[in-house]
Fold this sequence. Notes:
Layout: H1 2-49, H2 53-56, H3 63-99, H4 102-108, H5 113-154, H6 158-161, E1 167-168, E2 174-182, E3 187-195, E4 204-215, E5 221-236, E6 245-261, H7 283-308, H8 320-332, H9 337-342, H10 346-412, H11 419-443, H12 449-453, H13 455-472, H14 480-491, H15 511-531, H16 540-545, H17 551-567, H18 573-579, H19 597-605, H20 607-650
Antiparallel strand pairs: 1-2, 2-3, 3-4, 4-5, 5-6
Amino acid sequence: MAVYQNCCTFADHMRSPIKKLDIFIAKQFGLLFFATFFICQFVLMMQFLWRYVDELIGKGLSLEVMAQFFWYMGLMLMPQAFPLAILLSSLIAFGNLGESSELTAIKSAGISLMQAFRSLIVIVTGIAIMSFFFQEIVGPKAFVSFRQLLISMKQKNPEVEIPEGIFYDGIPGSNLYVQKKNMETGTLYGIMIYRMNGSYEDAAVILADSGHIQATAEKKHMLLTLYSGEWFENMRQSGLGVAANVPYRRETFSTKRIVLDFDSGFDMAEAGWIAMDARAKSMSKILHDLDSIREFNDSVGHQFFQESSLSPTRRASLSKDDSVRVVKAVAEKSVNLDSLYEQLPGERKQRIIAMATGNAQSALSEMEYKVDYSENLNREDRSHQMEAINKVTLSLSCLIFFFIGAPLGAIIRKGGLGVPVIISVLVFIVFYILDNTGMKMARDDNWTVWFGKLLGTAVLTPIAVFFTYKANNDSVVFNIDLYKQIASRMLGLRSKRSISRKEVIIEDPKYLTDAEILKNVSLEIERYGAVHHLLRWPNPIKVFFRPGDDHEIEYINNVLESAIEDLSYTRNPYVLMKLNQFPVIATHAHTRPFQRKWLNAITGIFLPTGIFFYFRMIRFRIRLYRDLQHIIRVNKKLIPRVVELGDVQAEGSVTVIDD
């Protein structure tokens, strides 16, 4: 019993520091999360506000309406602010722990990084779940209210909203163009009005040099006072089988007043059609409506297919058997249809041509309408799928951003709002670009919906796993020297030797031995050049699909480096200068790209990389040829001086010859 109590006490002591650590880290993260959340929410709202700034300025909206506008906007943007706030707060929290060496103390106590993460994993998971239910319950209602409010705001005081130089369609049934406005007097110049009476063929065109526009007292109509203008209007004849235009009516006026129906009072717009938008629906509603949308789309497509298989003028009565019967009858009687047409009078020919042209235009217009209608139906289907996926990916991004931010903070170990903010912005920009690109491509049916909406998540998830793995194993990720070394190898760059005189020299170099080594190196290089033709183009098959290590050049380089290492302990400045002239030889790059055979095979099969590495290898062969020739030239000048120093050394001279 005593042993059991002692074991329990020891376990409690072991669990207690971890519980206190969880509470400590949770407090650090929580305070930062609330602060960064409001910052991110403000930034997103300001970015979103630029889209609707024209609807707010100069409308005379009350503070109550403005407050509703910002309230609904904030509710809509909250799910987007959660991942960015988690990314920034986790970066700052673990950056502060690393900068103050608290993270080092945690690891030295035997607590792994994943154990330090566990309290925040629970918190972030809760935030992700809350984000999902927020999009399910609050988000759709906020979207409906926001769109309803926005439509009503657009209808507030349209006389102030009319822009210069473009057509304004805010007045129902009319398009208004104003060349210039005088904001002080309210006078409009260069006015052009298109009034739609039924169709574009029935439109009335009104031109005026100047005019005024104002709302009536009851705010139900718009009164246009026009000066020095003309009124053009097409007239239609009735009673004929085919409608025809007669010469239009033209009216010239010096002053003209037009009353347009327009309700500019601030009444909440009908929200029935807004509720049909996918963003105004919950997940269950979206999945339920998707079945109905797809069933309706299939029925419409089937109906369009049946209609397209028949003539537009005889769909109800003409069949394939009728067409075959007519063709057989014409063939039996040997009747030439072209000759029958030529026998018709001129008026009849024109009527037939006009009828055929009208049928063709009608068929084309009907087909274009069906295409547009089908695209709208397909877009509605895709928008519902995208919104359903977006609810999941936006919540999942909270976890992904945490496993990017927290490990990066532990690796970088920089707190505050400097480096963490820069990294957070870069990560969020990458996610934003990928997500919006995928969304637009999926919306336009260029990509599949799943591929487009999961593009950002699919790219950032491996990055989160990589950073978490590196941070948990204390691996170096941001080693600039390592990346420079890799880039130098890829591009064929190399550093020069920098051998300086040693401050303390215990033993002088063996000059005669080193001179003999340099002579042998020169001989080996000449023999190597005679056997290996470095200036010839290598066989690509041998390069990528057969082993080709060059052990001879490795041996020559090792022998040369041993002599250089021994001579670097000399006190003679001339020898040191010549040693720095020896090039750094790349012993492998002139044979094949990689050490592993399967990597070389994959590189050779993939043509772009294969071409790059093939020409890179040719460059290294040319460079190796020049390096070997340069080594021979340096040896010719260096060997006599080394031999001279060796002779002095052999004679036991105390003074070393200096130049």
